[in-house]
Amino acid sequence: xxxxxxxxxxxxxxxxxxxxxxxxxxxxxxxxxxxxxxxxxxxxxxxxxxxxxxxxxxxxxxxxxxxxxxxxxxxxxxxxxxxxxxxxxxxxxxxxxxxxxxxxxxxxxxxxxxxxxxxxxxxxxxxxxxxxxxxxxxxxxxxxxxxxxxxxxxxxxxxxxxxxxxxxxxxxxxxxxxxxxxxxxxxxxxxxxxxxxxxxxxxxxxxxxxxxxxxxxxxxxxxxxxxxxxxxxxxxxxxxxxxxxxxxxxxxxxxxx
Length: 257
Hints:
Layout: E1 2-3, E2 9-10, E3 15-19, E4 31-36, E5 42-46, H1 51-62, E6 69-72, H2 88-100, E7 104-107, H3 110-116, E8 123-131, E9 137-147, H4 155-165, E10 174-182, H5 196-207, H6 209-212, H7 215-218, H8 222-227, H9 236-256
Parallel strand pairs: 5-6, 9-10
Antiparallel strand pairs: 1-2, 3-8, 4-5, 4-7, 8-9
Helix pairs in contact: 1-2, 4-5
C-alpha cells in the first residue's frame, strides 16, 4: 500500500506498455491527380482525410497562394489517420504538373505504401493509477515516450492527443501526463509520426483494462470502481454502456440479498 496522488492511502498499480509502429494498410493506396492551368491555378483530386491540410501544405511546398489551389476529395477508401498530411503522390503530381503543364496522375503500389508512407508512431507508456482503499480511482500518472524518427509531421499532435485521451474513460481528481519525443534516425527506422488517431487508440489500449480488470488489480470489482468515477460526458456511448453495467450490478446485488 502506498500514499497515492490524492493523499489517501490505497492500492497503486504500475504497468509498462510498448506499442510498436504500424502500417495503415488502407484498401485504397495513396493517389493523386494534379492539373496546373496556364492561369496559375492548381487543382488536385486525391484520397485524403483533410482537404485543408493538403491545400495548406501544398501552398507551403509549391509557393502558390492557398486561394490558387483547389483540393477535391472523392470517396476515400480508408485512411485511419494516415491520409491527414501531405504525401509524396500529392506533392510529386502537383510539382510535375506545374513543370509539364499537363495533368499528372500518381498511384502508389502496395510495396510503396509500406516503404514510403508514414506509419503509426511507436509509443512507450508507463501507466500508474491510484485508488482509495475501497478501489475508487482517484489518481493517474502517465509517462509516454514516442519514437518520431527524422520526420516530425504530425508527431507533436500525436504526443498531445495520447496524453489527453489517456485520462479516459474515468474522472480522476489528480492526473499527470509527461510526454517526450525522441528523434531516432537511421536505416532501421521507417518514417513514422503520422496518424494522431492511432495515438488515441493506443492510449485507450492502456486505459481500458481498468474497465474490466480483476479485483486483485486495484482491490475492488470493476463496477465498484465506476460508482465513484463515472466516465466523461464527452463519451456518451461509453458512459451509457458503463451506466447499464452499473445498474445491472446493483440489480444483481439486490437479487442476491
